[in-house]
Write a structure and sequence with these properties.
Shape: globular
Number of helices: 15
Strand content: 15-25%
Number of strands: 31
Family: Belongs to the sulfatase family.
Number of domains: 4
CATH superfamily of the largest domain: Alkaline Phosphatase, subunit A
Pfam families: Sulfatase
Mean pLDDT: 96
Structural class: alpha+beta
CATH architecture of the largest domain: 3-Layer(aba) Sandwich
Keywords: Calcium, Hydrolase, Metal-binding
CATH topology of the largest domain: Alkaline Phosphatase, subunit A
Organism: Herbiconiux moechotypicola
Distance between the termini: 70 Å
Protein name: Arylsulfatase
């Protein structure tokens, strides 16, 4: 500690902390001046631990073996043996909101993230632009002398700000993290992900037949940790590690999928019972805990044909393989920390799921394309799924399992992801390991805990206060409370005694053992449905005493109407304080243009040059449900040229203008189904020299997703024409982008492979949006 003009240094309550220098007498000569020390840069408090914060994606309470489920997660179990298990850990029940709450320690609406980025609306709790008054744990730890990095999924950048042009203020590196290696959207194709390193787009999968993002991410995390400790062993690190697994697509290496062959042939109804019984054996739920019945809306295993049972079992094999493989990669990171001799003083917080497992499958037999089914209305054919069963888990499917499997993974609770009112959506599990501080190991903690508790836990463990201001901006108070009091005392009283829940107007309020909540109006797999003007009063409310009903199974609203009304009013009070209002039960409906920020408003001409890639859909030309013209100016060398001129999206939906064998070609994919693939191609290759290649698409008009006619012209002469019977109605992709001169991601058709860079000279590409 130092003292300079009466100020104790370092003052960790106001960030950034200026360097400290003791200044004495300064004379005109060196000999006449006092000896002076170099300025001291801030360092973390003595003994501050390294921190590894891990969170998987879409993993319910009953998925992992550690909590009674069928999926082996040995790294999770290994950390529990040396630490603590938490069986009443809660999330927000949805992705972006949980992630905002996790990194800020504030409730998700306080962090302006009441919904996922893609569905944000202008209201303060929902616009997705996180205020500078809501600083992140990355900012705080970096300013206090930690090395900080973020690996994997982000989904906290507004989708119109996810292009390589920035601004980057809400990207991980703009939120205080010194290094980022991962992806920005809701999910990633594990074999062809849209990865950024810092703010630079990279394609790490090129020329790698066995590439998988989870393995690549672990490699980068290991390299980063080793670099930190090799250069400055005394400096603690904070690694935020958030794989996109096990969110759809459920991708895993083939050999991992085969490990689970035949293990789920008994079906999801039986699995739910097995998991419940195992949870009791393990003691992760109390002996009197009740297994909630499966709601009548869910499909039953025995209603499937034998062929579809085989398909659905395969889906679960892929999900299990994805999560098990992910846990193995996390284990490699833990092993690397141990090899460095740092494991004892590393606080590892491993959260198994940012929400409950996803029941977003509308048919009950899973689906093969997330963007196709959930957004663009593609209904899977059972015969297609049966014929292509070997494609599940691989490159050419974005597979997701049945809502029946999701409900089994959320055993023993009611409901699933998005249903914040019920524990199946909001209660996951967590493990905390810190051998230097948590003695013994293997203990169970059952205090009510919440995802907002992680930031205060890390700060207390590191001996760092929550700052009053960051960069001159006064900080809003934390909503969470520290888990540290529970490290030594399994019977310590709860400190997080009140917590509201709200996602898509599914409402709940926990207070001192009681939970009041609404009954869902919209099933988890219904994207567009009935909406309500006043969800608080129009929804039915339930009441549960969780002190003697661990699984939220006995609605006692009729017996305690006064308690229910008390909690409903408490919910309204918390909602007002935390920017939850107005309540809004729209979901896919929020994607309508009138509900979203309008970028490039009125712009009809877009000019691009070679090397411009990875433009996300929100900032790319909107070629959906309209006519358009693409003009590419090229020079072809002697011997000809091939490659992409312009591409948007990929295998699961998109379009591309390119030269194939020298011939101008236009490919369109309404989806990944064979009947949704369209190609229009010239019969002759381009000759050497300068050419203008034009794709003219005349939209039929009418309902979104209608067809049109594609005409190819070279130097003004028509060279091919063909029909596109149907087009993408709502959204091209959740993760693939608009590219010039190459294709990043997956190909639109399998006539070429990525990146298929243009081998001639591409001068420019002009996209014109036309009426109709």
């Amino acid at each position: 500690m130092g003292d300079n003009e009466g100020v104790t240094w370092p003052d960790r309550t106001r960030l950034p902390i200026p360097a400290y220098q003791r200044v004495g007498r300064i004379d005109s000569t060196i000999s006449g001046s006092d000896p002076i020390d170099w300025p001291r840069e801030v360092s973390a408090p003595d003994g501050a631990p390294n921190v590894l914060l891990v969170m998987t994606d879409d993993v319910g309470f009953g998925a992992s073996e550690l909590f009674g489920g069928p999926i082996p997660t040995p790294t999770y179990a290994r950390l529990a043996e040396r630490g603590l298990k938490y069986n009443r850990f809660h999330t927000t029940a949805l992705c972006s909101p949980s992630r905002a709450a996790l990194i800020t320690g504030r409730n998700h609406h306080v962090a302006a993230t009441g919904i996922i980025m893609e569905f944000s609306t202008p209201f303060p709790g929902y616009h997705s632009i996180v205020s500078k008054s809501v600083g992140t744990i990355g900012e705080i730890l970096t300013a206090n002398g930690y090395g900080t990095a973020w690996f994997g999924k982000n989904h906290n950048v507004p989708d119109w700000l996810t292009t390589p042009a920035g601004p980057f203020t809400l990207w991980p590196t703009g939120l205080g993290y010194e290094y980022f290696y991962g992806f920005l959207g809701a999910d990633a194709h594990q074999f062809r992900p849209a990865v950024f390193e810092g703010t630079t787009p990279v394609e790490p999968y090129l020329d790698k037949d066995d590439y998988h993002l989870d393995e690549d991410m672990a490699d980068h995390a290991i390299a980063w940790v080793r670099r930190q400790k090799a250069i400055d062993p005394a400096k603690p690190f904070f690694a935020y590690y958030t794989p996109g697994t096990a969110h759809a697509p459920h991708h895993a290496p083939r050999e991992w999928i085969e490990k689970f062959a035949g293990q789920f042939d008994h079906g999801w109804d039986e699995q739910r019972i097995r998991t419940y019984e195992r949870q009791k054996e393990l003691g992760v739920i109390p002996p009197d805990a009740v297994l909630n019945p499966t709601p009548e809306h869910y499909r039953r295993w025995d209603d499937l044909s034998d062929e579809m049972k085989r398909v659905c079992a395969r889906e679960m094999e892929c999900y299990a393989a994805a999560l098990a493989h992910c846990d193995h990669q996390i284990g490699r990171v833990v092993d690397a920390i141990e090899e460095l001799g740092e494991l004892d003083n590393t606080l590892i917080i491993y959260i198994q799921g940012d929400n409950g497992s996803s029941a977003e499958d509308p048919t009950g037999h899973g689906f093969t394309s997330e963007i196709g089914t959930l957004v663009n209305g593609v209904v899977d054919r059972e015969d297609f799924m049966v014929e292509n069963i070997e494609e599940f888990g691989g490159m050419w499917f974005q597979n997701h399992f049945s809502h029946g499997w999701a409900h089994a993974m959320n055993s023993p609770y009611q409901w699933d992801k998005k249903i914040a009112s019920h524990l199946g959506g909001s209660r996951t599990s967590a493990v905390v390991s810190w051998p230097a501080r948590i003695s013994g190991g293997g203990g169970l903690r059952s205090q009510f805990t919440h995802i907002t508790d992680i930031v205060p836990t890390i700060l207390e463990a590191a001996g760092i206060p929550m700052p009053d201001s960051i960069d001159g901006v006064e900080q809003q108070a934390l909503n969470g409370t520290s888990l540290v009091p529970f490290f030594d005392d399994p019977d310590a009283p709860e400190t997080h005694t009140t917590q509201y829940f709200e996602v898509i107007a599914n409402q709940g309020i926990y207070h001192e053992g009681w939970l009041a909540n609404t009954a869902p109006k919209r099933l988890p797999w219904v994207g567009m449905g009935e909406t309500h003007d006043d969800p608080f009063n129009e929804y039915e409310w339930e009441l549960y005493n969780l002190e003697d009903d661990f699984t939220q199974s006995r609605n006692v609203a009729a017996e305690h109407p006064e308690k229910l009304e008390e909690l409903r009013q408490l919910f309204l009070s918390e909602a007002a304080k935390n920017q939850v209002l107005p309540l809004d039960d729209r979901y896919i409906e929020r994607l309508r243009p009138e509900n979203r920020p309008v970028h490039n408003a009125g712009r009809t001409v877009y000019t691009y040059y070679p090397g411009i890639t990875r433009i996300t859909e929100g900032m790319a030309p909107n070629m959906k449900n309209t006519s358009y013209r693409v003009t590419a100016t090229v020079s072809v060398p002697e011997g000809g040229a091939v490659g992409i001129l312009m591409c948007q999206g990929g295998w699961f939906g998109g379009n591309a203008l390119y030269l194939l064998d020298g011939r101008p070609t236009f490919a369109y994919a309404r989806s990944h189904y064979p009947e949704h693939k369209f190609t229009v191609a010239a019969t002759e290759p381009l000759t050497a020299g300068h050419h203008e290649v034009v794709l003219d698409f005349a939209y039929d008009g009418g309902a979104p997703g209608s067809g049109g006619t594609a005409t190819l012209l070279v130097d003004g002469d028509e060279v091919a024409q063909g029909r596109i019977d149907s087009t993408i109605p709502v959204r091209v992709s959740a993760d693939e982008t608009f590219d010039i001169g190459e294709d990043t991601g997956t190909p639109v058709v399998r006539d070429y492979d990525v990146p298929f860079r243009f081998t001639g000279t591409l001068h420019k590409v002009v996209v014109e949006l036309l009426p109709g």
